[in-house]
Amino acid sequence: MEANNTWELVNLPQDRKEIGSRWVYKIKKNADGTVQRFKAHLVAKGYSQKVGVDFNETFSSVVRWDTIRTVLSVAANKKLRLVQFDVKTAFLYGDLQEDIYMYQPQGFEDGIGQGCKLLKSIYGLKQAPRVWNERFKSFAMKCGLKQSNSDTCLFLNDEKSIYLIVYVDDGIIASVDEQAVKQFLEKLKSEFSVVIGVTNYFLGMQIECLEDGGIFVHQEGYYRKILKRFEMSECNSVSTHVEKGTITTDHSEFLPATVPYRETIGSLMFLAIVSRPDISYAVGVLSQVLDKPQQVHWSMIKRIIRYLKGTEKCEILFQYDEVNTLQCFTDSDYAGDPLSRRSTSGMIFMSYGGAVSWRSQRQSCIALSTTEAKFIAASQAAKEAIWLGNLLSELRCVPTIPVLQMDNQSAIRLVKNREFRSRTKHIDIRYKFIREQYQTKQLDVVYCSSEMQAADIFTKPLVKDRFLKLRKLIGMHNFG
Question: Which of 38, 167, 241, 351 has its CA 20 to 30 A from that of 462?
Fold first, then answer.
């Protein structure tokens, strides 16, 4: 902190109040649980800051998981070299615009009673993430990178084919030009204190680079933590995460508060968001009853964990593919929720063999027919498809318009034409967004058989054979 000139000692102005601080200690671990290093942060008590006095704007973006997976898919296809870095004490590099005063922290007292006027941001300040983000953005642009229009935490250099993704102080560089990567890392080390290493563990995601250029994405270490945390390490495994027909209007007893229902859902949701699209539907359904879960819901959670026990080696694989087509699948059940009778939308987007984006979401309105339910699901998927198409275009993949694959001919005709006006005029105008995008040739819609509808795995419980087939279809491989 002294080397970085983080503060200067001053006499406190009479019209200002100092904020406090405390030391926070943390152990950073590797994917296998071993200690990587010990960390100590001086954290300001930012809760005592006042808006308009010592802070204004606080928003700071972070990279989307969809962006991370998409960049990894492109890296696998183009056989790019991956390098990972971590900026040490990143928030101390942010330049403050406001005057902030702080008591001298423990271990720095000089005994003369002066306070600290902060010249750089520190952890705990409300604006600290924002000013660090702006600081790194300025540095990246000086190095010849430009900010992506699709994700503000993705930086690109088209001439040298450098892709840089940043999540606060952690980042990954992907490039085919090793000399360009080396030059960038030299500039990075001269500007910040960084730790540089092989890309194998990023934000809880394990990344394995194969000799042929393929990339595996999984969270095997995190599965084991879940099994140990919830005392299910010795449980028997099952082949599916939810049994067909178990989503019912059960009237079993409510769970006592001592049962860690919410904690378990949070852990499983992180898996479903990062690397396990196959459990998204079940986790989404169970997260809807966080206020009053019942015994049947707890039994379903334990079944998901038993399923994870048997699929620890289930991974997403990205690999080389000559045909650069973004595969988009969208589907919906009809009135599947037994209480609200709302339908569930499912969508998945695949790039170079693996899933890069997916969603299982209960619709916000009641559909009056299967056609209407699938039309609503397609409109929701269209927004994500267009965004992913733009992202892949920025990553210099061959630009093609996204093609949504649906298994309902009536819904497809509803997208392409203004049919069934008397029976569909009540549909909210926001769901007709997809029709406009089709007419302006921003996307296309085609028919696929129900047998090959990959998004079906996100809409309802399936029998074992059907579930395993779709799991493979969405690019997941079980090596257990």
Answer: 351
Residue 76 sits in the same domain as residue 166: yes
Beta strand pairing call for 403-406 and 327-332: parallel
Task: Please tell me whether residue 190 adopts helix, strand or coil conformation.
Answer: helix
Within this chain, do residues 137 and 25 fall inside the same structural domain, yes or no? Answer: yes
Indicate the SS3 state at residue 156.
strand
Same domain? 347 vs 276: no
Report the predicted TM-score, pTM, of the whole model to 2 decimal places. Answer: 0.92
Number of domains in the chain: 3
Answer whether 362's CB lies under 8 Å from 344's CB: yes
376 and 234 both lie in a single domain:
no
Sign of CA dihedral 395, 398, 399, 403: negative
| pLDDT tens digits along 391-435 | 999 998 866 789 999 999 999 998 888 665 555 666 666 667 888
Cβ atoms of 102 and 118 within 8 Å: the answer is yes
Alpha-carbon distance of 16 to 101, in angstroms, equals 8
Q: Output Rg (C-alpha) for the chain, integer angstroms.
A: 25
How far is the C-alpha of 379 from the C-alpha of 386, rounded, in Å? 11
d(CA 137, CA 122): 18
Rounded to whole angstroms, how far apart are CA atoms 241 and 28?
31
Could you list the residue range(s) of the whole structural domain that residue 262 is in?
228-310
Can you tell me the distance from the alpha carbon of 409 to that of 399, in angstroms, rounded to the nearest whole number? 27
- The separation between the first and the last C-alpha atoms of the chain, rounded to the nearest angstrom, is 48
For 279, other C-beta atoms within 10 Å of its C-beta total 22
pLDDT digits (tens, 9 = 90+) for 116-173: 999 999 999 999 999 999 999 999 999 999 999 999 999 999 887 899 999 999 999 9
DSSP-derived letter for residue 19 is B
pLDDT in tens, 190-231: 999 999 999 999 999 999 999 888 999 999 999 999 999 999
Strand partners, 361: 345
